[in-house]
Design brief:
alpha/beta, Rossmann fold, three-stranded antiparallel beta sheet, 50% helix
Length: 214
């Protein structure tokens, strides 16, 4: 089963994915985190990628496809959540081809719909473990301030968690990702999650959608 999580930044996709990983044995592929890890390197490709991420721009499809191929080679027969990829129709079509190589396909898409205002309120409260990348915020809070519950790592704010970068990402999201929702609805089950409500409400809606598929 391969579920695609779509939505703007801080819409609740990551929280839902983290819950399923922690309690239900799912595996999550976060394109954003995979790209950030790659961008931390010192190679020319890493520096080029870091520049894309800093400006809030969509990363070239070729870079994303390389990461996806490696991931599905190892996990294509498991319960997988895709968080942050595909981001546009072109990436989705390319991923269909990758999945076909492993005799697999998308199962469904979950669309977390949230406004830019709501996303910014959540981003302001968001911190992340610098070691294991676990995210804390309005819903999931650390037991000890500044320390990760899972590994004891230091909690930090992402450098790209700024209002300017969020605004740029929303424009890209509206231009690139919203058409993907329409494309997916013609081919796969698509569940719409009202992520403007409380994080608990969005999580409940997403779990209900998943129960229909299982």
């Amino acid at each position: 089963m391969i579920i695609v999580l779509l939505g703007p930044p801080a819409s609740g996709k990551g929280t839902f994915a983290q819950t399923l990983v922690d309690h239900h044995g799912w595996i999550v592929f976060s394109a954003g985190q995979a790209l950030r890890d790659m961008a931390a390197g010192k190679s020319p490709r890493a520096k080029k990628l870091a520049a894309f991420l800093k400006r809030g721009k969509l990363v070239p499809n070729a870079m994303v496809a390389h990461l996806e191929d490696d991931f599905f080679r190892a996990h294509h027969n498991k319960k997988v959540l895709l968080d942050g990829t595909p981001r546009n129709v072109s990436q989705a079509r390319a991923m269909e081809k990758v999945l076909k190589k492993f005799k697999s396909s998308f199962t469904a898409f979950l669309f977390f719909d949230a406004t830019e205002k709501v996303s910014w309120e959540r981003i302001r409260a968001r911190v992340q473990c610098e070691k294991c990348h676990r995210i804390y915020g309005l819903q999931i809070k650390p037991k000890k301030k500044g320390i990760c519950n899972a590994c004891g790592g230091k909690l930090i704010r992402r450098k790209d968690d700024t209002k300017g970068v969020l605004h740029d990402r929303f424009r890209v999201y509206q231009r690139e990702t919203l058409p993907l929702v329409e494309w997916a609805a013609q081919r796969y089950p698509v569940f719409y999650i009202n992520a403007n409500r409380s994080p608990q409400s969005a999580l409940k809606q997403a779990k209900t959608a998943l129960s229909i598929l299982e």
